[in-house]
Write a structure and sequence with these properties.
3-stranded antiparallel beta sheet; alpha/beta; 10-stranded mixed beta sheet; 20 strands
């Protein structure tokens, strides 16, 4: 996520707080509401009385539905949903989240945080790690580490006596995860630190899982007794006969097969992950319909067929870029900035106010209609093209190198609530190869969406608009890309030609595979994972300072928490949310709820099909993930979960004891060169990030450092052109020019040969 330091953000969020009935709060304030008793309302699970929807996720919150791929459908009761307002926690007088869109899902998020509350729980005593090493340095101080925490030794989940396990009910295999207690200050001060289990690799789509907690201990080492409600199920005396039968036939026997006796349990329950179809069918339907209108129905062959999307060039402006490489040599490149609009089928339910429609008016930005949703005329769950406004003209910007040669199109994804004008960030990889960068706004998460995002933060019922617009945004990007690679697209316009009329765009001839790529940073590295999973025209992509699963990212980001780095006049993005949802349990539950829908608009919902297991009618892709160690904005743990989920090799390159893991952090046997998808860390010397759900903050933010490294840029370019990732640090540590160890002299330098040249490996 890339920080938005703009007056627009301040005006939107600050203005929203000003008109609220809630008292104002500074970004760092710990907002704690009253802790009220949970009412007995429809939809609550009595196994955990701390919060109505705990434990979560939970198949008790579903209903049978033979029309879905899982045979289930989520069935949240409005009475059980979190409420916003001044004096509310569960069951207060505020407005409950409208569960309508959630109840269209046939399961829970593949990256779902698994939660319950265990009073008095001490995880160090529970896991038997209390005697392991930890530093005298505090969190966010140089030298910090804590090997007592489960995240430092995730493999504890494999232990025969592991006190917490998550088991795939079909295969009987344990799933990798780490456990943590909510360490956010608001939760700690309120005494409401939920137990959170986070998958170290995403859960399998459509699969059912069983959670088992046993031999949990408090700080004295005493075993915590299970509650009376669950004890009744263990003893076979529960009054809910149907649920008792489920425990007796589907849960306890599966646990016993895994060596877990029901008498030892503190708590157990099961949940089902949403199916592949449920997670992806909307955007794949939109993509297939849209490209069929161009005359291309085979989207798996990486070849251009049919017509180019229509487009208009609105203007050009020439400039010169200059830079100095890692060897001290200066370079200059003439660049032409091209602005225009591409015509894209519109699946939204109302007119979209973009620059394409309001050109000539004096609007400061292309403002979407608040609350816009995908149109579903026949209520079959699949978006329909708007019959009133069937297309929308989507603004794009391209930077064309005036280098007298055809250049490969590379789409760029901008940062947090930013815009297409951040395409300047792509300059580094362009310097190392013949790349022509183009960009559009990420609908749903761009600057024009700020008012809608601010409104969502005070009422989660409005959240479905964000992933709906994001899916239309993916289609917008794909059409900009298709216009770039099509022989009858951008290459036919003088803005993309040299003085003699020769195209400066490398287009695809009939029967030839496309040579186009993707590069995105921060939010562009998060949402770009979704795009790479569904795009028909880009075989390889760079996800810079990436991660996935916003439910993991938010607490771990200074953009959200705002504790250190935001300008004084810009409130943290979390403030309206924390003001509106004051109970710590409900805050974490809110993160889990929005993730169920956010899966449609970010990499978490698409990661299983990003690389070697593509969706139907979709090509395979290769991905380089380039992370900044101890990134203040996008948590490294989220990048590692993504790497494991997509099958990317986690490469060595950090110095010993830098990573939070007490043992090996890289993939077993990982070494350069590597063919295919990989995760590479770049280290600027910051303190090791906190183990819990808190943001890193020590030192300067390294978030932008990898993209400014000449060696990293060469490595990226070579990967895009060949699929090989070469070692650019000659066997040493991957430290940036910003790392004090460098003393101003780069220790990592690119080879003195063009990226993409042989030998490839």
């Amino acid at each position: 996520m890339q920080r938005v330091a703009s007056r627009l953000a301040a005006a939107v969020i600050g203005g929203l707080l000003a008109i609220s009935a809630l008292p104002a709060a500074a970004a760092g304030d710990k907002i704690i509401g009253p802790i009220l008793p949970v009412p007995s309302t429809t939809g609550c699970d009595p196994l955990d009385p701390s919060q109505c929807l705990f434990p979560f996720p939970n198949d008790v919150l579903t209903t049978p539905d033979p029309t879905t791929d899982t045979g289930l459908r989520v069935n949240f009761s409005p009475l059980a949903m979190p409420r916003n307002g001044t004096e509310v926690t569960e069951g207060g007088e505020g407005k409950p989240v409208d569960p309508t869109e959630w109840n269209r899902n046939d399961g829970f998020s593949p990256g779902s945080m698994v939660m319950t509350y265990v009073p008095g729980l001490d995880l160090h005593q529970t896991w038997g790690t209390a005697e392991r090493a930890f530093s005298t340095a505090a969190i966010n101080e140089q030298g910090y580490f804590d090997h007592r925490d489960h995240i430092a030794d995730i493999d504890l989940y494999k232990s025969r006596t592991a006190p917490i396990v998550i088991i795939n009910a079909e295969s009987g295999r344990r799933h990798p995860f780490w456990s943590e207690l909510d360490s956010h200050p608001g939760a700690v001060e309120a005494g409401e630190s939920a137990l959170i289990l986070r998958p170290a690799r995403n859960f399998d789509e459509g699969s059912r899982y069983i959670v088992a907690l046993r031999n949990l201990k408090d700080s004295s080492g005493a075993v915590i007794a299970r509650g009376a409600a669950f004890d009744a199920y263990v003893n076979g005396t529960a009054t809910d006969a149907a649920r008792q039968a489920r425990y007796s036939t589907d849960i306890f026997p599966a646990l016993e097969d895994a060596g877990i006796e029901s008498d030892d349990l503190y708590l157990a329950w099961d949940f089902t992950i949403a199916s592949e179809r449920n997670l992806s069918e909307r955007v794949l339907h939109m993509r297939d319909v849209a490209f069929a209108q161009l005359g291309d129905t085979d989207l798996a062959n990486l070849m251009v067929e049919g017509d180019s999307p229509e487009f208009i060039v609105d203007g050009t402006e020439d400039r010169e870029d200059t830079w100095t490489d890692a060897y001290g040599q200066q370079h200059t490149q003439a660049i032409r900035r091209v602005t225009g609009r591409v015509t894209v089928p519109n699946f939204m339910d109302r007119i979209q106010q973009t620059e394409g429609h309001v050109r000539g008016n004096e609007l400061p930005y292309d403002a979407p209609v608040p609350g816009s949703r995908l149109l579903d005329l026949d209520l079959d769950g699949l978006p329909d093209q708007n019959p009133v406004e069937s297309t929308v003209r989507v603004p794009f910007v391209c930077d064309v190198p005036l280098n007298d040669q055809p250049n490969h199109v590379i789409l760029y994804g901008h940062g947090l609530l930013g815009s297409k004008d951040q395409i300047g960030d792509i300059k580094s990889p362009r310097r190392d190869g013949p790349f022509l960068g183009c960009a559009a706004d990420w609908w749903g998460m761009s600057s024009p969406d700020l008012p809608t995002v601010a409104a969502i933060l005070t009422d989660l019922s409005q959240f479905p608009s964000l992933p709906d617009r994001a899916q239309q945004g993916f289609l917008n990007f794909m059409f900009v890309g298709r216009a770039g690679v099509h022989p009858d697209g951008f290459a036919t316009d003088a803005a993309f030609q040299d003085a003699s009329g020769t195209p400066l765009v490398d287009v695809s001839d009939p029967g030839e595979r496309t040579k186009a790529f993707y590069d995105g940073n921060s939010q562009g590295g998060i949402m770009g994972g979704s795009l790479m999973a569904i795009t028909p025209d880009f075989s390889r992509g760079i996800l810079g300072v990436p991660g996935m699963n916003y439910s993991t990212l938010l607490n771990r980001s200074v953009d959200w928490e705002g504790e250190l780095a935001l300008e004084a006049d810009i409130p943290a993005y979390s403030v309206p949310y924390y003001e509106s949802y004051r109970d710590p349990f409900e805050r974490q539950l809110g993160f889990a709820l929005i993730q169920m829908l956010w899966d449609r608009g970010e990499a978490n919902g698409y990661a299983a099909h990003m690389t070697s297991d593509p969706y139907p009618n979709t090509p395979k892709h290769e991905i380089m993930l380039q992370a900044a160690f101890s990134d203040h904005q996008v948590a490294n743990v989220a990048a590692e979960v993504e790497a494991r989920t997509i099958g990317a090799v986690i490469m060595p390159g950090l110095a010993p004891d830098r990573h939070w893991a007490m043992n090996r952090y890289s993939s077993r046997g990982a070494r350069y060169p590597v063919r295919g998808s990989a995760l590479i860390y770049w280290d600027s010397g910051n303190a090791t990030p906190p183990n819990g759900n808190l943001p890193p903050s020590e030192g300067g933010d390294p978030h932008g450092h990898p993209r400014s490294e000449p060696a990293a840029s060469w490595q990226e370019a070579h990967f895009l052109l060949t699929g090989w990732t070469l070692d650019v640090c000659t066997g040493g540590c991957y430290i940036t020019d910003n790392n004090p160890l460098n003393n101003g002299v780069p220790s990592c330098r690119p080879p003195q040969r063009p990226a993409g040249s042989k030998p490839y490996r």
